[in-house]
Amino acid sequence: MEPELISKRELLELTGISYGQLYRWKRKDLIPEEWFIRKSTYTGQETFFPKQKILERIEKILSMKDGLSLDELADMFSPSLSEIALTKQSLLSRNIVTKITVDMYTDEIGETELFTFDRLLYLYTLDLLLKDGQISLDEGKLLLRTLHDRYPSFEGKACDLLLIRKWGVSLFLLVSGTSDIAADADARLIVRLPMARAIEELKLKLA
Asked: Facing residues of 193 across strands?
């Protein structure tokens, strides 16, 4: 379950960006420091990146950089939670999430007058996985409880949401974004969702 890596040289060749652009984006926090992974090779120390994450991030930067400044892009990609709150009526009327998702949150976590950004993130993540058919309704309840109880402990740091199933039992985990995951042969990794991706998508819907 170790994520596939891509070398810096391969990354620059594949994307067409320059060394200077890559490190300028790093200084602006558009690319997380922890994605720059130093490894020993037969030629010495080389820098590698989690392939899927870095390619998705660079594609987004290139597609958005003409309309937004680097500082605005950095805010868009930041895992920190924005100071925003919406009523149930507002988030439904703006089609940010579905009523099924909101009702599930109310049943599992309780009524709330305002959904702050962190709660909106939990709703959006649930909505995303339900729409994709990756989780069941019962797993959705477990997901909400996991996010509500455990996500605040990351204090805005990048992390991934994992769903592992074994013999019909589901387990959600939140792990550091660059962590390797090893499990026994009977366990299956169903979902690995970078929470930074969900944050980016949610911020775009709220814009």
From this structure: 161
Mention every residue, 6+ apart, whose C-beta is less than 8 A from residue 148.
109, 122
Q: How far apart are CA 165 and CA 187, in angstroms?
A: 6
How many other C-beta atoms lie within 10 A of the C-beta of residue 191?
A: 19
Q: How far does CA 5 lie from the centroid of its chain?
A: 18
Q: Which domains does the chain have, with CATH numbers?
A: 5-77 (1.10.1660.10), 85-156+195-206 (no CATH)
**The pLDDT value given to residue 78:** 67
Would you state the pLDDT for residue 70? Answer: 81
Structure tokens at 12: 């620059």
Contacts for 178 with CB less than 8 Å, ≥ 6 apart:
3, 34, 35, 37, 50
Q: What string of H, E and C letters represents the secondary structure of 72-128?
A: HHHHHHCCCCCCCEECHHHHHHCCCCCHHHHHHHHHHCCCCCCEEHHHHHHHHHHHH
pLDDT in tens, 25-74: 998 888 888 889 988 877 778 999 989 889 988 998 898 887 778 877 77
Bridge partners for 166 per DSSP: 169
Residues 6+ away with beta carbon under 8 Å from 90: none
The two three-digit tokens of residue 120, written as one number: 């909106």
Using CB atoms within 10 Å of the CB of residue 168, give its burial: 0 to 12 exposed, 13 to 18 middle, 19+ buried: exposed
